[in-house]
Amino acid sequence: YRMSPKYRFPVMLNDCTVATIHFLKSLHMYGVDHARVVLCGDSVGGWVATELCKLFRNHPGLPRIRAQILIYAALQAVDFQSPSFQQNHNIPFLTWDMMFDCCSCHLAISSEWRSTIKKGTHLSPEFWKKYSKWLGHENIPERFKKRGYRPVVPGPVNEKAYLETALARSETCTPILAPDDILAQLPEACIVSCEYDLLRDHSLLYKKRLEDMGVPVTWHHMEDGFHGVFNTLGFGCLEFPCSLRILNLIVHFIKGL
């Protein structure tokens, strides 16, 4: 797909959509069973896989997606005060500043709102009243708060920042906010989260949302994992043990479909 900063949202998603449609229409060319198509992605690729599953859940003339595999996926772009953000904000290979720079570039959000967004004052009380049932930190198991977590009460909303971050609050950029009736139609999921990952809580919150909607979820948590660890697979002495575990778990999941 074409990438930012030259190409911004929704170019990446559109490119992946076109490629997926081509693939689904050409399964016979690749020797793929139309009943066993799986979408997989890591990090922002996990977000793309999630959106494609939503898009193709009832697409006329195309095979239904059998399952989705999400590896430390980026699944929300609004709340940056959850336990994993407080605990892992300076851990390579994804720090808070790196993540903000990527999001602001992709969604055309001015860098002047960096501290405002980090503190949560870009969100209105009305937003939290509507969506806290899905984003609230009480949905995150207590064991994930033990390394350090302090509930934060946001200050007064910054209206300019609120307006400029409207796209981030959309259900496309933040799939956790998708309506119940859409999530209930999504395919079975395999979700991999990593303890030392800024985005860890994205997986935990999305897992709960899917399970609440009756979607089967297989979840694996890497206690020794961090964001990007899967990319070390095959790099010899640079390979982290959990990267191979993730691969084996994914293979086992796919074989069991």
From TrEMBL:
InterPro entries recorded: AB_hydrolase_3, AB_hydrolase_fold, GDXG_lipolytic_enzyme
Domain of life the protein comes from: Eukaryota
Molecular function terms, GO-annotated: hydrolase activity
Organism: Dipodomys ordii
Stretches assigned to the Alpha/beta hydrolase fold-3 domain: 1-103, 160-230
Protein name, per record: Arylacetamide deacetylase-like 3
Keywords: Hydrolase
Hydrolase found in the keyword field: yes
Pfam families documented for this protein: Abhydrolase_3
Gene: LOC106002119
